Amino acid sequence: MSLKKKILLSFLVGAAIMAALSAFLYANFVEIRAETAFLELTDTVRSKSLQLRRHEKNYLLYAPATAGDEAASIRAYLAELDAILARVPEPGRGLAASLGPLVREYRQQFGRIETLVRVIAAESAAFRQRSPVYARVSGLLEANFLDKPLADVAYLQSDHDLAADHQLVLWLQELDVLITGLRRTGESILTASKELDRSAREKVDAAIRRSQTALFVFYPVFLAAGFGVAALVAGSLVRRIKVLAGLVEETGAGHFPAPPPAAAAGTGGDEVDLLTRRFYVMEEQLQKHERELVQAKKLAAIGTLAAGVAHELNNPLNNISTTAQRLLRKAGDDASPLVRKGLDDIHGQTLRLKSIVGDLLEFARAREPHLAAVELGDLVRSAWRSAAASRDTAAVLLRTELQPPEIVLEVDREQLERVFINLFVNAVDAMPGGGTLTVRAEEDGEVTLAVSDTGGGIPADALEKVFEPFFTSKDRGTGLGLAIVFGIVQRHRGTIRVQSAVGAGTTFTLTLPLNRAVRREAAGNGGPR
Question: Disulfide engineering: 510 pairs with which of 377, 449, 455, 483, CB 3.0-4.6 Å?
Answer without folding.
Answer: 449
